[in-house]
Automatic annotation (TrEMBL):
<dbReference type="Pfam" id="PF09996">
    <property type="entry name" value="DUF2237"/>
</dbReference>
<dbReference type="InterPro" id="IPR018714">
    <property type="entry name" value="DUF2237"/>
</dbReference>
<protein>
    <recommendedName>
        <fullName>DUF2237 domain-containing protein</fullName>
    </recommendedName>
</protein>
<feature type="region of interest" description="Disordered">
    <location>
        <begin position="1"/>
        <end position="24"/>
    </location>
</feature>
């Protein structure tokens, strides 16, 4: 299996990486997984459940995840949608007090290079 194969990657709790979304084409490869792949400069490795506060925060930071962009095959996100976020954006939201809940089973283990497991667990949700 290649490194970009989600079946070959692990989540932050050391188990096989689960899909972040079965309905939205999320992740750098748009396959529903927060897979770590070469070329993903944004590190779209953290699976989060969107909240209105986070979506508004992200839009204020210049990354509008709410507005549909049909030309990019992007439907726009709503609260409760699952999405692979850039690790840096989640950290910014955490510092601002609006970090969305984390789906540990679908969050790539590479996130542990930037965020400790204790912090992720404090924001974890059961799905």
């Amino acid at each position: 299996m290649s490194q970009s194969d989600p079946d070959a990657q692990r989540n932050v709790v050391g188990e096989p990486l689960e899909p972040c979304s079965n309905t939205l084409s999320t992740g750098y490869q748009r396959d529903g997984h927060c897979t770590a792949v070469p070329g993903d400069r944004g590190s779209h490795h953290l699976c989060a459940k969107m909240t209105q506060d986070f979506l508004e925060f992200s839009r204020a930071q210049g990354n509008d995840l709410i507005t549909p962009r049909p030309e990019l095959d992007f439907p726009g996100l709503n609260p409760k949608d699952h999405w692979c976020l850039c690790v840096g954006r989640w950290l910014e939201a955490h510092e601002a007090g609006v970090a969305p809940p984390v789906v540990l089973e679908a969050t790539n283990e590479t996130v542990l290079e930037a965020i400790d497991l204790e912090t992720l667990e404090a924001h974890a949700i059961e799905e």
